[in-house]
Amino acid sequence: MNAIEVLELTKRYKKGAVAVDSTSFTVEQGAAFGLLGPIGAGKSSIINMLLRFTKPTSGTVKIFDHDVATQFQEVQNKIGYLPERPGFYGNFSAEKNLRILANLSGVREVREERKERDERISKLVILAGLEGKETDLVRTFSLGDRKRLGIAAAMLNEPELLILDEPSIGLDPQGRHDILALIHELNVHDVTLFLATHNVRNIAEICDVVATMKSGRVATPITTKGFIADMRGPTLQLEADLANMNERVLQAIKSVKGVKSIQCERLKISLDSRPGINEDVNYVITRAGGRLRSLRESPSLEEAYVRMMGEQKVE
């Protein structure tokens, strides 16, 4: 079964502005699907139609084989949603915010259901990495902790589909790493992910399928590995900064499958663009006694993505 089916979906706003233009794609149940495109491409407009916040101008959206236009209530409780900037009551604790949201989602105030609700909230607080902060006022939270709380809120109804809009935007590197690790953990536990982002590294680290979006059009989905290989091309350049260059290290690098050539000045390595080759080079350098200070890839994911989007024409 597909978690999401979008067919010929179009959204036009006033004055004729087209946010989504005759778009079709599917998301298989259990997949980690990434919708990748620049800000303003139309990603949030698609999310708004998936969640029935807005109606499409034309086309259809199905979630778990239910038409969103007429049967959304039948699948609503199977969906969790993390907006770009989650909103909470700042003068309430994290725990109280989650209780309020649980009540709004239909948990009645009877003893048995309150107990089940509170147990669920306690588990989600731990899952989201907020243990010890559950009684803190949300207004004291960093953006990263608000995102964590947002994920906990999105998981209150134990959804089968989690929709995320720019989950790492505004976070520092550590906060981004922690949030992505949490999202990946949810997918491991059979939650289908639909992640909309402009950050190509989010896609590379979480998603197994990706579709790019540009000017309201969505390209045919492709595996993330295939997407990265197509985007970078057949050859990758690595520039290594070594504290102790010697012949043993050079020979170890040459032994890595896919290495084509090495320039000793600044140690520039030309190699096949294949998954895991960076890690292979790093491993053999370390094993040969080399001390690697840094390893820079060229083109980087970001450089390759910007170049590709500049060239891409979405049919």
Helix content: 25-40%
By CATH, the topology of the largest domain is Rossmann fold
Q: Tell me, briefly, the overall form.
A: globular
The biggest beta sheet reads: 7 strands, mixed
Query: Helical element count?
Result: 11
Element string (H = helix, E = strand): EEEHEEHEHHHEHEHEEEHEHEEHEH
Class by SSE composition: alpha/beta
CATH uppermost class of the largest domain: Alpha Beta
Number of strands: 15
Please mark out the parts with pLDDT under 50 across 5 or more consecutive residues, or reply none: none
State the CATH superfamily name of the largest domain: P-loop containing nucleotide triphosphate hydrolases
Rg over CA atoms, rounded to whole Å, is 23 Å
How does this model look, in words?
The chain is built from eleven helices and 15 strands. With about 325 residues, the chain is of the alpha/beta class. It has two domains: about 1-230, P-loop containing nucleotide triphosphate hydrolases (Rossmann fold); about 235-310, Alpha-Beta Plaits (2-Layer Sandwich). The strands form three sheets. Strands 3, 6, 7, 8, 9, 10 and 11 form a seven-stranded mixed sheet that branches. The chain has a four-stranded antiparallel sheet with strand order 2-1-4-5. A four-stranded antiparallel sheet has the order 13-14-12-15, with helices on one face. It is globular, with a radius of gyration of 23 Å. The protein starts with a strand and ends with a helix.
Question: Mind sketching the topology for me?
Answer:
Blueprint: E1 2-12, E2 18-28, E3 32-36, H1 43-50, E4 58-63, E5 66-67, H2 68-75, E6 79-82, H3 94-104, H4 111-127, H5 143-154, E7 161-165, H6 173-188, E8 192-197, H7 200-206, E9 209-214, E10 217-218, E11 222-223, H8 224-232, E12 235-242, H9 247-254, E13 259-263, E14 268-272, H10 277-287, E15 292-298, H11 301-311
Parallel strand pairs: 3-8, 3-9, 6-7, 7-8
Antiparallel strand pairs: 1-2, 1-4, 4-5, 9-10, 9-11, 12-14, 12-15, 13-14
